[in-house]
Specification:
Number of helices: 4
Number of domains: 2
Strand content: under 5%
Order of helices and strands: HHHH
Distance between the termini: 95 Å
Helix content: over 70%
Largest sheet: none
Number of strands: 0
Length: about 140
């Protein structure tokens, strides 16, 4: 028989896992909204997210109570997610949107620098190519 102390520990652990799942789901929602993937890619990433969440819950169960599945496990995960969504979800979404926007700005700057270097090198190489053509034509 599992002690009440272990059940309480497992329940609280599952609540924390529910909060973490909600946090990562909000991040995934923001990324999915910004990337505008096609239907097949979205379905594939949804499936991968579900598999990752399942693995995460399973590992949490193994850590908490040797992998025993009980009703209070599901109640703990769902209550953790509900608490997360009612308290900090909207702030997390705003944070993730800003982070994704900042990453986009950073990406554009890096891209423009790389393209600038590429175009300069390309023009230099084309000039060298023309010089070689002139030299070897004679």
């Amino acid at each position: 028989m599992v002690s009440l102390r272990l059940q309480a520990f497992t329940f609280l652990n599952m609540m924390m896992i529910g909060v973490v799942i909600g946090f990562f789901f909000d991040f995934y929602r923001v990324l999915r909204g910004k990337c505008q993937l096609g239907r097949v890619a979205t379905d594939l990433f949804d499936l991968l997210f579900c598999l990752a969440v399942t693995l995460f819950v399973f590992l949490g169960l193994i850590y908490s109570n040797q992998g025993q599945v009980r009703l209070y496990i599901f109640i703990g995960v769902i209550s953790g997610e509900v608490i997360y969504y009612l308290t900090i979800s909207k702030y997390s979404i705003i944070f993730f949107q800003r982070v994704v926007k900042l990453i986009g700005v950073f990406y554009q700057k890096i891209k423009s620098i790389v393209l600038l270097i590429y175009n300069r090198l390309k023009s230099i190489l084309l000039k060298i190519k023309e010089k070689f053509k002139e030299i070897f034509k004679r």
